[in-house]
Design a protein that fits this description.
The structure is a single chain. The protein has 11 helices and 15 strands. It is α/β, with parallel strands linked by helices. The mean pLDDT is 94. Helices cover 34% and strands 24% of the residues. The strands form 2 sheets. The chain has a 9-stranded mixed beta sheet.
Length: 356
């Protein structure tokens, strides 16, 4: 039986998704946890059976004292990503970093440079939709050329989220762009995943909050834009957390149009192929799902659990993880370009402004 990798988790609120996955994982074990308050540490310690000596208030101390740590998961507010991720990489540990990577492009590039200065070390970004099985099947068939050359992508996501101000105002309501910084970055990365991880050449976008939204001080509950990816793939994007009356959720509805047909997926649903006037299911519930284990790895794991298992394999096999920092920085560039375009009300040349 191979020895498990040891994971140190920073943050217990969102960090709980990594603690849950590591606790159930055949490849990982929990080395320790870092949090701001004793109450948070005690709660996580009891739930995940973490010894008191492996509960820390400070990441620097944890890196010094917590034994045999292989990787560190950073799951804290966005403004803390860069300083803590720097600490992890400079300590020579593998890094798991929640999205979005950082608050600025310069910080993101700095993390890539620090990663490159540590040969053999890996860094993944918590883009959980890359672990959703039907999206993985869709991406596989697109890669195999099921609709030929991809030409256009239409993505929409909308629902009405207000939340509980007493609970949620601590983080989501104070994001600079609530839709993009919370959910939009997942959707941006999903679109890139389905396109074959194409970079964005240029885009124009807008962000706003509808007048009917009950918390008017919140900025950017909705976003839309037109992107041009490499190979001249055109993307039409709309995402909103403030649409009343018709809810399709944050996974979104996506059409991928190619030279031979269209691949379509409803929110959290099975993908379908439309070609020559015919509709054919290509998801788990169809004939394509009967042998899915022959062409997709780790099919028994989903979302964060899948990312964590893939990351363990990437470390062992010395390859890039599916959400590699080196690639995911291109999703980050789109996020930052949308914000800049919305602010300046103009097209942004993403290759020039955010060169990777």
């Amino acid at each position: 039986m191979k020895e498990k990798l040891r994971l140190l988790v920073v943050g217990t609120r969102f960090g709980s998704i990594y603690l849950d996955a590591a606790q159930k994982s055949p490849s990982w074990e929990i080395a320790g946890v870092v949090a701001k308050t004793k109450a948070s540490l005690d709660e996580a310690g009891q739930k995940y059976s973490i010894d008191e000596k492996n509960r820390y208030f400070d990441l620097k101390i944890a890196l010094q004292k917590c034994k045999d740590v292989d990787a560190v998961a950073i799951a804290v507010p966005n403004e803390m990503h860069h300083p803590l991720a720097k600490m992890v990489l400079d300590a020579g540990k593998h890094l798991i970093l929640e999205k979005p990577i950082t608050e600025t492009w310069e910080q993101a590039i700095d993390l890539v440079k620090r990663l490159d200065a540590q040969p053999g070390k890996k860094a993944m970004v918590g883009q959980t939709l890359r672990g959703e099985i039907n999206l993985r099947m869709m991406e596989y068939h697109l890669r195999q050329g099921i609709i030929g050359r991809i030409e256009q992508i239409l993505f929409e996501s909308h629902w009405n989220w207000v939340g509980n101000p007493k609970i949620d105002r601590n983080w989501r309501f104070r994001l600079p762009d609530m839709m993009l910084d919370d959910i939009g970055i997942h959707q941006i990365d999903t679109i890139r995943m389905l396109s074959g991880n194409k970079k964005c050449k240029e885009l124009v976008a807008a962000t706003w909050t509808p007048q009917s939204y009950p918390v008017q001080q919140v900025t950017g509950t909705s976003a839309s834009g037109t992107w041009i990816l490499d190979d001249n793939i055109r993307v039409s994007y709309f995402g909103s957390m403030s649409c009343k009356g018709h809810d399709i959720g944050w996974y979104g509805r996506v059409h991928v149009f190619g030279e031979k047909g269209c691949l379509y997926r409803d929110s959290e649903g099975q993908p379908y192929l439309f070609e020559d006037g015919k509709k054919e299911g290509i998801g788990l519930d169809d004939k394509y799902g009967e042998n899915v284990d022959e062409y997709l790895p780790l099919i028994d794991f989903s979302k964060t659990a899948y990312l964590l298992e893939d990351f363990a394999q990437a470390i062992t096999d010395d390859r890039s993880p599916v959400t590699d920092l080196h690639d995911n920085i291109n999703s980050h560039a789109i996020l930052l370009a949308i914000k800049r375009s919305a602010r300046d009300r103009q097209w942004i040349n993403v290759h020039n402004v955010f060169p990777s």
